[in-house]
Amino acid sequence: MSPFLDGWIAHRCGLDAATPQSVLRVQLARFNAVLRHVRRNGVFYRKRLAGLFERRGDLIETGMWPREPFDVAEIPLTEAADIKRDGGRFLCVPLDEIARIVTLSTSGTTGIPKRLAFAADDLESTLDFFAHGISVLVRAGDSVLILLPGAERPDGVADLLRRALPRIGARGIPGDPAADPKLFRKEVERYRPQCLVAAPSQLRRLLEGLESPPNLRAVLSSAEPLPDDVRGALAARWGCAVFDHYGLTETGYGGGVECPSHDGYHLREADLYWEVIDPFSGEPVPDGTPGEVVFTTLTRRAMPLIRYRTGDLASMLPGPCACGSPLRRLSRIRGRLARGKDGTLTVIAPSKGWMGP
Questions:
Q1: By its UniProt entry, which InterPro entries does this protein fall under (predicted)?
Q2: What's the domain range around 276?
Q3: Residue 182's CB: how many other CB atoms inside 10 A?
Q4: pTM of this prediction?
Q5: Mean pLDDT score of the chain
Q6: 15/140 Cα distance (integer angstroms)
Q7: Structurally, how many domains does the chain consist of?
Q8: More confident of the two residues 144 and 211
Q9: The CATH number of the domain where 340 resides is what?
Q10: DSSP letter for each residue of 312-348
Q11: Which of 152, 213, 309, 327 is 20 to 30 A from 14, comparing alpha carbons?
Protein backbone atom coordinates (compact mmCIF):
# COMPACT_ATOMS: atom_id res chain seq x y z
CA MET A 1 0.00 0.00 0.00
CA SER A 2 1.34 3.46 -0.90
CA PRO A 3 0.09 7.00 -0.25
CA PHE A 4 -1.94 7.62 -3.39
CA LEU A 5 -2.26 11.42 -3.07
CA ASP A 6 1.12 12.37 -1.65
CA GLY A 7 2.98 12.38 -4.96
CA TRP A 8 0.28 14.54 -6.54
CA ILE A 9 0.36 16.97 -3.59
CA ALA A 10 4.16 17.18 -3.81
CA HIS A 11 3.95 17.90 -7.54
CA ARG A 12 1.24 20.53 -7.09
CA CYS A 13 3.29 22.18 -4.35
CA GLY A 14 6.57 22.05 -6.28
CA LEU A 15 8.17 19.75 -3.72
CA ASP A 16 10.44 16.72 -4.03
CA ALA A 17 8.44 15.00 -1.29
CA ALA A 18 5.33 15.87 0.68
CA THR A 19 5.97 16.11 4.41
CA PRO A 20 3.79 17.92 6.96
CA GLN A 21 6.44 20.62 7.33
CA SER A 22 7.11 21.17 3.62
CA VAL A 23 3.41 21.21 2.70
CA LEU A 24 2.67 23.68 5.50
CA ARG A 25 5.35 26.06 4.21
CA VAL A 26 3.76 26.05 0.77
CA GLN A 27 0.27 26.46 2.22
CA LEU A 28 1.26 29.50 4.27
CA ALA A 29 2.95 31.08 1.24
CA ARG A 30 -0.22 30.49 -0.80
CA PHE A 31 -2.34 31.83 2.07
CA ASN A 32 -0.27 35.00 1.88
CA ALA A 33 -0.91 35.20 -1.87
CA VAL A 34 -4.66 34.83 -1.25
CA LEU A 35 -4.60 37.73 1.20
CA ARG A 36 -2.80 39.93 -1.32
CA HIS A 37 -5.22 38.85 -4.06
CA VAL A 38 -8.37 39.70 -2.10
CA ARG A 39 -6.90 42.97 -0.82
CA ARG A 40 -6.27 44.17 -4.35
CA ASN A 41 -9.23 42.64 -6.16
CA GLY A 42 -12.05 41.82 -3.73
CA VAL A 43 -14.52 44.20 -2.15
CA PHE A 44 -15.80 41.90 0.61
CA TYR A 45 -12.50 40.83 2.11
CA ARG A 46 -10.87 44.23 1.67
CA LYS A 47 -13.54 45.54 4.03
CA ARG A 48 -13.86 42.48 6.29
CA LEU A 49 -10.10 42.24 6.82
CA ALA A 50 -9.45 45.98 7.02
CA GLY A 51 -8.22 45.72 10.62
CA LEU A 52 -5.92 42.84 9.72
CA PHE A 53 -4.49 44.72 6.75
CA GLU A 54 -3.91 47.74 8.99
CA ARG A 55 -1.97 45.61 11.51
CA ARG A 56 -0.21 43.19 9.16
CA GLY A 57 -0.38 44.90 5.77
CA ASP A 58 3.34 45.56 5.36
CA LEU A 59 4.22 41.99 6.29
CA ILE A 60 1.52 40.61 3.99
CA GLU A 61 2.71 42.69 1.03
CA THR A 62 6.28 41.47 1.47
CA GLY A 63 5.18 37.82 1.69
CA MET A 64 6.11 37.49 5.37
CA TRP A 65 2.71 36.75 6.95
CA PRO A 66 1.19 34.38 7.97
CA ARG A 67 4.29 32.45 9.01
CA GLU A 68 2.76 29.97 11.48
CA PRO A 69 -0.64 28.31 11.93
CA PHE A 70 -1.36 30.44 15.00
CA ASP A 71 -1.08 33.52 12.77
CA VAL A 72 -3.99 32.21 10.70
CA ALA A 73 -6.19 32.13 13.82
CA GLU A 74 -5.94 35.95 13.89
CA ILE A 75 -7.96 36.18 10.67
CA PRO A 76 -11.77 36.55 11.00
CA LEU A 77 -13.96 33.61 10.01
CA THR A 78 -16.28 33.61 7.00
CA GLU A 79 -19.81 32.17 7.21
CA ALA A 80 -22.43 31.00 4.72
CA ALA A 81 -24.54 34.04 5.63
CA ASP A 82 -21.77 36.27 4.31
CA ILE A 83 -22.01 34.66 0.86
CA LYS A 84 -25.82 34.88 0.87
CA ARG A 85 -25.70 38.55 1.78
CA ASP A 86 -22.62 39.74 -0.13
CA GLY A 87 -21.88 37.04 -2.69
CA GLY A 88 -21.11 39.40 -5.56
CA ARG A 89 -18.65 41.32 -3.41
CA PHE A 90 -16.52 38.18 -2.99
CA LEU A 91 -15.57 38.21 -6.68
CA CYS A 92 -11.92 38.93 -7.43
CA VAL A 93 -11.92 38.65 -11.24
CA PRO A 94 -13.91 40.42 -13.99
CA LEU A 95 -17.25 38.88 -14.87
CA ASP A 96 -16.01 37.75 -18.27
CA GLU A 97 -13.53 35.44 -16.52
CA ILE A 98 -16.28 33.57 -14.67
CA ALA A 99 -16.76 30.12 -16.21
CA ARG A 100 -19.39 28.71 -13.84
CA ILE A 101 -21.82 30.05 -11.24
CA VAL A 102 -23.46 27.56 -8.88
CA THR A 103 -26.62 28.54 -7.01
CA LEU A 104 -27.30 26.59 -3.83
CA SER A 105 -30.82 26.80 -2.46
CA THR A 106 -31.03 26.81 1.31
CA SER A 107 -33.66 25.87 3.86
CA GLY A 108 -32.67 28.51 6.38
CA THR A 109 -34.87 31.16 7.87
CA THR A 110 -34.43 33.57 4.95
CA GLY A 111 -34.18 31.07 2.11
CA ILE A 112 -31.62 33.31 0.38
CA PRO A 113 -29.47 31.15 -1.92
CA LYS A 114 -25.71 30.99 -1.96
CA ARG A 115 -24.03 31.72 -5.28
CA LEU A 116 -20.49 30.52 -5.89
CA ALA A 117 -18.36 31.53 -8.87
CA PHE A 118 -15.51 29.61 -10.51
CA ALA A 119 -12.99 30.62 -13.17
CA ALA A 120 -11.74 28.12 -15.73
CA ASP A 121 -8.51 27.61 -13.74
CA ASP A 122 -10.55 26.87 -10.61
CA LEU A 123 -12.46 24.13 -12.43
CA GLU A 124 -9.23 22.72 -13.85
CA SER A 125 -7.92 22.29 -10.29
CA THR A 126 -11.03 20.27 -9.46
CA LEU A 127 -10.61 18.09 -12.55
CA ASP A 128 -7.00 17.43 -11.53
CA PHE A 129 -8.01 16.45 -7.99
CA PHE A 130 -10.86 14.24 -9.19
CA ALA A 131 -8.55 12.35 -11.52
CA HIS A 132 -5.99 11.67 -8.80
CA GLY A 133 -8.42 11.21 -5.91
CA ILE A 134 -10.56 8.61 -7.65
CA SER A 135 -7.46 6.65 -8.65
CA VAL A 136 -7.66 5.03 -5.21
CA LEU A 137 -10.43 2.79 -6.57
CA VAL A 138 -10.47 3.22 -10.35
CA ARG A 139 -8.01 1.52 -12.70
CA ALA A 140 -7.15 2.21 -16.32
CA GLY A 141 -9.75 0.57 -18.53
CA ASP A 142 -12.52 0.73 -15.91
CA SER A 143 -16.04 1.91 -16.61
CA VAL A 144 -17.45 4.11 -13.83
CA LEU A 145 -21.20 4.59 -13.47
CA ILE A 146 -21.91 8.03 -11.97
CA LEU A 147 -25.28 8.55 -10.29
CA LEU A 148 -24.52 11.98 -8.82
CA PRO A 149 -26.58 14.82 -10.33
CA GLY A 150 -25.10 17.37 -12.69
CA ALA A 151 -24.17 15.29 -15.73
CA GLU A 152 -26.51 17.35 -17.90
CA ARG A 153 -24.96 20.64 -16.74
CA PRO A 154 -21.56 21.70 -18.06
CA ASP A 155 -19.14 21.79 -15.11
CA GLY A 156 -21.67 20.16 -12.77
CA VAL A 157 -20.12 17.70 -10.33
CA ALA A 158 -21.03 14.62 -12.37
CA ASP A 159 -19.86 16.29 -15.57
CA LEU A 160 -16.52 17.22 -14.00
CA LEU A 161 -16.01 13.68 -12.76
CA ARG A 162 -16.92 12.24 -16.15
CA ARG A 163 -14.37 14.53 -17.81
CA ALA A 164 -11.67 13.74 -15.23
CA LEU A 165 -11.78 9.94 -15.63
CA PRO A 166 -10.17 9.76 -19.11
CA ARG A 167 -7.07 11.35 -17.58
CA ILE A 168 -6.40 8.03 -15.85
CA GLY A 169 -7.58 5.90 -18.75
CA ALA A 170 -11.09 5.22 -17.42
CA ARG A 171 -14.55 5.97 -18.77
CA GLY A 172 -17.29 7.84 -16.91
CA ILE A 173 -20.93 7.01 -17.66
CA PRO A 174 -23.75 9.23 -16.34
CA GLY A 175 -26.48 7.15 -14.71
CA ASP A 176 -29.96 7.85 -13.39
CA PRO A 177 -29.73 10.18 -10.33
CA ALA A 178 -33.12 8.89 -9.15
CA ALA A 179 -31.35 5.58 -8.44
CA ASP A 180 -34.37 3.53 -9.44
CA PRO A 181 -33.39 -0.12 -8.80
CA LYS A 182 -34.99 -1.40 -12.03
CA LEU A 183 -33.29 1.21 -14.19
CA PHE A 184 -30.02 0.71 -12.32
CA ARG A 185 -30.17 -3.00 -13.09
CA LYS A 186 -30.52 -2.18 -16.79
CA GLU A 187 -27.61 0.28 -16.60
CA VAL A 188 -25.43 -2.36 -14.96
CA GLU A 189 -26.35 -4.92 -17.62
CA ARG A 190 -25.62 -2.44 -20.40
CA TYR A 191 -22.39 -0.87 -19.16
CA ARG A 192 -21.03 -3.56 -16.78
CA PRO A 193 -19.24 -0.94 -14.62
CA GLN A 194 -16.35 -1.86 -12.36
CA CYS A 195 -16.95 1.17 -10.14
CA LEU A 196 -19.94 3.18 -8.96
CA VAL A 197 -20.12 6.76 -7.67
CA ALA A 198 -23.27 7.66 -5.72
CA ALA A 199 -24.63 9.41 -2.65
CA PRO A 200 -25.51 7.31 0.43
CA SER A 201 -29.23 7.98 -0.05
CA GLN A 202 -28.95 6.61 -3.59
CA LEU A 203 -26.96 3.60 -2.39
CA ARG A 204 -29.49 2.82 0.33
CA ARG A 205 -32.25 2.78 -2.28
CA LEU A 206 -30.29 0.43 -4.52
CA LEU A 207 -29.44 -1.94 -1.69
CA GLU A 208 -33.08 -2.71 -0.95
CA GLY A 209 -33.55 -6.14 -2.45
CA LEU A 210 -30.94 -5.69 -5.19
CA GLU A 211 -28.41 -8.49 -5.58
CA SER A 212 -24.74 -7.82 -6.17
CA PRO A 213 -24.14 -6.16 -9.57
CA PRO A 214 -21.78 -8.27 -11.68
CA ASN A 215 -18.28 -6.86 -12.26
CA LEU A 216 -18.73 -4.16 -9.62
CA ARG A 217 -15.48 -3.96 -7.66
CA ALA A 218 -15.67 -0.66 -5.76
CA VAL A 219 -18.04 2.13 -4.71
CA LEU A 220 -17.24 5.78 -4.02
CA SER A 221 -19.75 7.43 -1.70
CA SER A 222 -20.03 11.20 -1.98
CA ALA A 223 -22.26 14.25 -1.41
CA GLU A 224 -23.57 13.14 2.02
CA PRO A 225 -22.14 11.56 5.18
CA LEU A 226 -21.83 7.79 4.72
CA PRO A 227 -23.71 5.89 7.47
CA ASP A 228 -21.98 2.83 8.90
CA ASP A 229 -24.92 0.57 8.06
CA VAL A 230 -24.81 1.52 4.37
CA ARG A 231 -21.05 0.95 4.22
CA GLY A 232 -21.45 -2.41 5.91
CA ALA A 233 -24.33 -3.48 3.69
CA LEU A 234 -22.41 -2.62 0.53
CA ALA A 235 -19.46 -4.71 1.64
CA ALA A 236 -21.59 -7.62 2.86
CA ARG A 237 -24.25 -7.81 0.15
CA TRP A 238 -22.34 -6.59 -2.88
CA GLY A 239 -18.88 -7.75 -1.82
CA CYS A 240 -17.22 -4.54 -3.03
CA ALA A 241 -14.71 -2.13 -1.52
CA VAL A 242 -16.29 1.11 -0.26
CA PHE A 243 -14.53 4.48 -0.22
CA ASP A 244 -15.89 7.75 1.11
CA HIS A 245 -15.29 11.24 -0.28
CA TYR A 246 -15.67 14.55 1.57
CA GLY A 247 -16.25 17.82 -0.21
CA LEU A 248 -18.58 20.78 -0.60
CA THR A 249 -19.47 23.00 -3.51
CA GLU A 250 -17.61 25.70 -1.58
CA THR A 251 -14.38 23.63 -1.71
CA GLY A 252 -14.75 23.29 -5.47
CA TYR A 253 -16.53 19.95 -4.91
CA GLY A 254 -13.40 17.96 -4.04
CA GLY A 255 -12.06 18.00 -0.50
CA GLY A 256 -10.66 14.66 0.62
CA VAL A 257 -10.99 10.92 0.07
CA GLU A 258 -10.29 7.74 1.99
CA CYS A 259 -7.41 5.39 1.18
CA PRO A 260 -7.70 1.58 1.55
CA SER A 261 -6.95 1.94 5.27
CA HIS A 262 -10.29 3.77 5.70
CA ASP A 263 -8.88 5.86 8.53
CA GLY A 264 -9.92 9.39 7.63
CA TYR A 265 -9.91 11.56 4.53
CA HIS A 266 -6.63 12.31 2.77
CA LEU A 267 -7.00 16.00 2.07
CA ARG A 268 -6.60 18.18 -1.00
CA GLU A 269 -3.84 20.09 0.75
CA ALA A 270 -2.32 21.66 -2.37
CA ASP A 271 -5.47 23.70 -2.92
CA LEU A 272 -7.08 23.96 0.52
CA TYR A 273 -5.86 24.86 4.00
CA TRP A 274 -7.84 22.98 6.64
CA GLU A 275 -8.46 23.81 10.29
CA VAL A 276 -10.63 22.45 13.09
CA ILE A 277 -11.91 25.02 15.60
CA ASP A 278 -14.04 25.08 18.71
CA PRO A 279 -17.44 25.95 17.21
CA PHE A 280 -18.42 28.15 20.14
CA SER A 281 -15.21 30.06 20.90
CA GLY A 282 -13.75 29.99 17.39
CA GLU A 283 -10.36 28.98 18.78
CA PRO A 284 -8.28 26.26 17.08
CA VAL A 285 -8.34 22.86 18.78
CA PRO A 286 -5.47 20.32 18.96
CA ASP A 287 -5.25 17.39 16.55
CA GLY A 288 -7.51 14.58 17.67
CA THR A 289 -10.00 16.98 19.28
CA PRO A 290 -13.40 17.29 17.58
CA GLY A 291 -14.62 20.66 16.40
CA GLU A 292 -15.91 22.52 13.37
CA VAL A 293 -14.16 22.07 10.04
CA VAL A 294 -12.91 25.32 8.50
CA PHE A 295 -11.05 25.74 5.22
CA THR A 296 -9.34 28.40 3.10
CA THR A 297 -9.05 28.14 -0.69
CA LEU A 298 -5.39 28.55 -1.65
CA THR A 299 -5.48 28.50 -5.45
CA ARG A 300 -8.92 29.82 -6.37
CA ARG A 301 -8.95 33.04 -8.37
CA ALA A 302 -12.60 33.90 -8.98
CA MET A 303 -14.11 33.70 -5.51
CA PRO A 304 -11.61 32.87 -2.76
CA LEU A 305 -12.96 31.85 0.63
CA ILE A 306 -10.92 32.56 3.74
CA ARG A 307 -11.48 30.54 6.92
CA TYR A 308 -14.91 29.40 5.77
CA ARG A 309 -17.03 27.65 8.39
CA THR A 310 -18.51 24.44 7.00
CA GLY A 311 -20.78 23.57 9.93
CA ASP A 312 -19.37 20.03 9.79
CA LEU A 313 -17.98 18.45 12.95
CA ALA A 314 -14.85 16.31 12.79
CA SER A 315 -11.29 16.12 14.09
CA MET A 316 -7.86 16.34 12.49
CA LEU A 317 -6.14 13.00 12.83
CA PRO A 318 -2.56 13.11 14.10
CA GLY A 319 0.23 10.74 13.18
CA PRO A 320 0.93 8.86 9.95
CA CYS A 321 -1.71 6.82 8.15
CA ALA A 322 -1.33 3.07 7.86
CA CYS A 323 -0.90 3.58 4.10
CA GLY A 324 2.38 5.35 4.80
CA SER A 325 1.34 8.96 4.29
CA PRO A 326 2.73 11.33 6.96
CA LEU A 327 0.23 14.05 6.03
CA ARG A 328 -2.81 15.11 8.00
CA ARG A 329 -6.16 13.40 7.61
CA LEU A 330 -9.65 14.49 8.57
CA SER A 331 -11.85 12.11 10.56
CA ARG A 332 -15.26 11.12 9.33
CA ILE A 333 -17.92 13.79 9.84
CA ARG A 334 -19.43 13.34 13.29
CA GLY A 335 -22.32 15.80 13.09
CA ARG A 336 -23.53 19.22 12.04
CA LEU A 337 -24.04 22.64 13.56
CA ALA A 338 -27.38 24.42 13.31
CA ARG A 339 -27.55 28.19 13.75
CA GLY A 340 -30.71 29.66 15.24
CA LYS A 341 -32.37 32.96 14.37
CA ASP A 342 -30.58 34.57 17.28
CA GLY A 343 -27.20 33.25 16.12
CA THR A 344 -26.94 30.52 18.76
CA LEU A 345 -25.33 27.25 17.70
CA THR A 346 -26.76 23.80 18.33
CA VAL A 347 -24.86 20.56 17.78
CA ILE A 348 -26.73 17.99 15.70
CA ALA A 349 -24.82 14.74 16.00
CA PRO A 350 -25.87 11.61 14.08
CA SER A 351 -23.87 9.35 16.37
CA LYS A 352 -23.18 9.22 20.08
CA GLY A 353 -20.24 10.97 21.62
CA TRP A 354 -19.17 13.37 18.88
CA MET A 355 -16.95 15.00 21.46
CA GLY A 356 -15.04 11.73 21.81
CA PRO A 357 -11.91 10.81 19.83
A1: AMP-dep_synth/lig_dom, ANL_N_sf
A2: 6-348
A3: 9
A4: 0.92
A5: 91
A6: 26
A7: 1
A8: 144
A9: 3.40.50.12780
A10: EEE-EEPS--TTS--S-EEPPP-EEEEE-TTS-EEEE
A11: 309
